[in-house]
Write a structure and sequence with these properties.
By secondary structure, this protein is of the alpha/beta class. It has two domains: 229 residues, Alpha/Beta hydrolase fold, catalytic domain (Rossmann fold), CATH 3.40.50.1820; 73 residues, no CATH class. It contains eleven helices and eight strands. The protein has an eight-stranded mixed beta sheet, sandwiched between helices. The radius of gyration is 18 Å and the shape is globular. It starts with 20 loop residues before the first helix and ends with a helix. The relative contact order is 0.19.
């Protein structure tokens, strides 16, 4: 398996306007172009009698990119649509995951998605891999954490077809990030996430009224509370801190055995200082980290171009480890 080769790419150099982590983050969500991507949806059955919806783009390519979205995203998030479009136009088929509860239809089981649900990523990989010679995994934010955990857990046993992993804006230390997003400057982000998550709890309560209760929901004031009350216990963890401890991706980086690129902007408003895991990356010859000065969270805006910097570097990296 190929090791990292000091991959080089032009640095992200935004205009003065986008040298703000918050503006870069907000612009991407509110104003970026939405691509009309001709997805074809496939439903995959899981071993626990649930389902995963995967949105696919196919054009007979011999390689496929599996895309993993962030918290409360989906395959139709603007950043996923844009990346899917860019990859598809440049020689890659695409399989964009929708995590449990994220495809527009509520899943059947009590469990939902979380940052370390690598069994669901494995289900998608196993479903897709039979059609291709090569695979890559690309993830954003929570999906980036999921991708790194997956790579580390697999280690030497990772599928030979998976040639590379590229991830962006990754909360590699979940506990400190849950505290960072409580900061007053991040109020609007936390509010939006909680608004979406609360709606899903109410839908799950129709299925499991003894688990997803109003009393529990009333205890949720922050994202940390949500993970402490719902995500952790429902995911099989003791509480939020146990969930964060077991699922933070930094600890898995030394065990990754496929060329991997981690890109975390230094001005990302979601990431704590512990989300720049230089020590872990330096331990592993397969993993490279880039920390551009600007970029925000899932930002990297380039207004004068049709693509964002993250899409360009993601394609360049996975192409550098492809034989096609």
């Amino acid at each position: 398996m190929a090791k990292k080769d000091n991959f080089q790419f032009p640095e992200y150099q935004p205009s003065f306007l986008f040298r703000s982590g918050h503006l870069n983050t907000v612009f991407t969500t509110l104003f970026r172009q939405t691509y009309d991507v001709p997805y074809q949806r496939e439903r995959i059955s899981t071993l626990d009698n649930d389902f995963l919806d995967v949105d696919r783009l196919r054009n007979g390519h011999q390689r496929v990119a599996v895309l993993c979205h962030g918290l409360e995203g989906s395959a139709h998030a603007k950043y996923i649509l844009a990346l899917a479009h860019h990859l598809f136009q440049n020689g890659w088929d695409v399989a964009a995951m929708n995590y449990r509860t994220c495809s527009g239809e509520m899943n059947r089981q009590i469990r939902v998605y979380h940052s370390g649900a690598t069994d669901d990523l494995e289900t998608v990989v196993q479903h897709v891999e039979k059609d291709y010679d090569e695979m890559a995994i690309l993830g954003f934010s929570l999906g980036g954490n999921l991708s790194l955990v997956y790579g580390g857990q697999k280690g030497e046993r990772i599928l030979d077809k998976i040639r590379s992993i590229a991830v962006f804006s990754v909360p590699t230390h979940l506990s400190s990030c849950s505290q960072k997003i409580k900061h007053y400057s991040n109020f609007i982000y936390e509010f939006r996430f909680l608004h979406s998550l609360r709606k899903k709890v109410k839908l799950k309560a129709e299925q499991f009224p003894d688990i997803y209760t109003d009393e529990k929901l009333e205890r949720v004031k922050t994202l940390y509370d949500f993970d402490d009350v719902f995500t952790g216990p429902i995911g099989g963890f003791k509480d939020a801190e146990d969930y964060y401890t077991q699922c933070s991706s930094a600890q898995f980086i030394p065990d990754i055995r496929v060329p991997t690129l981690l890109v975390n902007a230094l001005d990302d408003p979601f990431l704590s200082d512990l989300c720049y895991p230089h020590e872990e990356v330096n331990q592993n010859e397969f993993v490279q980290m880039m920390t551009p000065k600007y970029g925000g969270h899932v930002g990297f805006v380039q207004p004068s171009k049709g693509t964002y910097w993250s899409e360009e570097i993601g394609l360049a990296f996975i192409n550098s480890h492809s034989k096609y």
